[in-house]
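Hi all, long-time lurker, first post. I run a small reading group and we've been trying to get comfortable going from sequence to structure in the token notation. Rather than ask abstract questions, I figured I'd post a concrete chain and ask someone more experienced to write out its structure so we can walk through it together at our next meeting. Sequence below, copied exactly:
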Amino acid sequence: MNMISNPPAILICGGGFAGALLAIRLLDTATAPLSVIVVEPRATVGRGVAYSTVEDVHLVNGPASHFSLYPEDPLHLADWLRGQGHTGDVAEAFIPRRLFGTYVETELDRAIRESRASFTHLRAEVVALRRQPHGLEARLSSGAKVHAARAVLATGVHPLGGIAQGAVHPWDAAAMDGLADARDVLIVGASLSMVDAVASLESRGFRGHIHAISRRGHLIEPRRVVPDIPPFLPDPLPTTARGLLSAVRAEHRRILADGGDWQALPPALRGDVLPLWQGAPMAERRRFNRHLRSLWDVMAHRAAPPSFAALERARAEGRFTARAARLVRVGQGEAHLRLRRGGELHLQVDGIIDCRGHQEHDWRRIDAPLVRDLIAQGLAVPHPSGFGIRAQGLAVVGLNGTAPGDLFALGHPMRGEAWESSSIPEQVAQGSALAALLRQSLRQLAL
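-- Answer (accepted) --
Happy to help. Here is the structure in token form:
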């Protein structure tokens, strides 16, 4: 089947949060006939990996007031929650991720009903893209072909390679059921996914011991409410990882000397993240990734307090241990660990949970048909930082070093260009900007 769209079509490759957000923006702002096509294998658009979980103990890691889909209306999510019958201070509530997914789906349904544009969800995957004289042709896993004037890579996250046979993910409810009566469980990774895993186990009545490991031993903390501090980085901004670390350490010492909390640091840094990243030479971006990324991850992305409470209870009962270590091998129920400070440790475990995050960032290592095709055809180029792909603004750069302006990216593929592209507030901003860019691009196409 060859679907040639008239009116012009925008094809969105991926229907997780980023893809749904862009669709909502396009539908809400359409002033002329337009076809919005989302290719997503899941039955619904808007949940992706993060919001497909069915467990109420898996929470968004910030209050509802931080996760509105509309920057001009920061309390939109809170008002929606009230409309669903939720009471109390919902603006400061840490809601289940499945509920946030419902919010996104509901807003997409509303936008579809009210829009002048049309919306199509094709349950498949895009496996290849080809440039044509008047747009792009996508080949789908179903065998169908779709023609579009413009296409957007909203591919989200890609899975890392497995760590051990039999290891499970914390969002696999059936697998977590099977660990409820285990004596010892090993969790590989110590950030937000680890908190999900601990909360899931404890909600099932787990009474065994949880061993959490991470390479550097940085353990995530719960988000705390702290007074704001003003931006503190010098002008001009540091251009090296060492300079950034020195400035943050100095401010950290000042905060502690004043009796404050280090958690005031991330909000004060947030507005400088993009200029910091884009102003740093590539060698410094790689140095940040090697030496500071794990610290940034646990500092900037703190856990929802209600979920973290399960970890605190297990730790208080002597059932939670965190170590800086690597998993070397697994055999006959025994996990062999190499400790960061030297030596090895052998643990008898009944199960292993992979909490490294569902994220392979390096497009040279991603085993997905579309990713392999884009690179092979030269339509996209892996970013030299090892994260995502090269882009000019939000337009994808090809092998010839130019951005033709018919292929764009949003969210995770943009991390090499804009570091915090995996976070909801940044994706909301990107989605608004990209929708405007696409509207302008289509107007020029019509001339």
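A couple of things your group might point at:
The domain at 2-58+96-159+360-446 is CATH 3.50.50.60 (FAD/NAD(P)-binding domain).
Residues 198 and 381 are 38 Å apart (CA to CA).
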